[in-house]
Design brief:
Elements (H helix, E strand, L loop, with lengths): L1 E4 L13 H11 L10 E3 L8 E5 L2 E5 L1 E15 L13 E3 L4 E4 L3 E2 L17 E10 L7 E5 L1 H16 L7 E6 L11
Parallel strand pairs: 2-10
Antiparallel strand pairs: 1-11, 2-3, 3-4, 5-6, 5-9, 5-11, 6-7, 7-8, 9-10
Length: about 190
């Protein structure tokens, strides 16, 4: 991730002509708004190395996304595997990593499913990071839910910004992908 300082009002949503958009953003941030209603930035499949920007009726593949992070939050998902070994929608979700909604639900900090399993090298309940990325040309931010490894890298990145006294909304960040090998050498 690369960082550049935001100078002036170079973002469409931050310009004076976008008062209606700003009012919409304020309304969204002050309500029980569902992140799934925003355009999404989706991770690629294993065969692909491109993000997908997805909005209603629109899909576009991109190598990278540049913008400012207007909000970020740690979240948790728990998927229960079915008999056919498929996973469906999460059966438990937490938008604050404190209180889970669904089954089992309750206190995430006391939940056995959220505890790290040394044998698996992970927990059953995955901790992720939800990030809202505002690109220059957009009025509404892209919603991005980072997978566990990327969530950890984003946390380190946000901590490094904070240690340099830079808020994520004042830094232009470039989100891009790179393939990494596992400890066993698999891509």
């Amino acid at each position: 991730m690369n960082v550049t300082e935001v100078k002036g009002k170079t973002y469409s949503a931050l310009s004076e002509q976008s008062e209606k958009a700003l009012a919409t953003l304020d309304k969204i941030s002050n309500s029980n708004f569902n992140i799934s209603e925003l355009p999404r930035l989706k991770m690629p499949s294993k065969e692909d190395n491109l993000f997908t920007i997805q909005a209603s009726g629109f899909r576009k593949k991109v190598e990278s996304v540049e913008g400012i992070v207007v909000a970020q939050n740690d979240i948790r998902f728990y998927w229960k595997k079915e008999k056919d070994n498929n996973t469906h929608s999460p059966v438990c979700f937490s938008n604050d990593c404190i209180s889970g909604l669904g089954t089992p639900g309750g206190d995430c900090t006391a939940c056995s499913l959220a505890q790290f399993d040394l044998n698996k090298g992970s927990s059953n309940c995955q901790k992720r990071k939800a990030v809202l990325i505002l690109r220059r040309e957009d009025i509404l931010p892209l919603a991005f839910v980072a997978p566990p490894k990327s969530a950890k890298a984003l946390s380190v990145y946000f901590l490094s910004l904070a240690s340099n006294r830079v808020r994520p909304c004042f830094a232009v960040t470039n989100f891009s992908l790179s393939r990494e090998r596992s400890r066993t050498g698999i891509l």
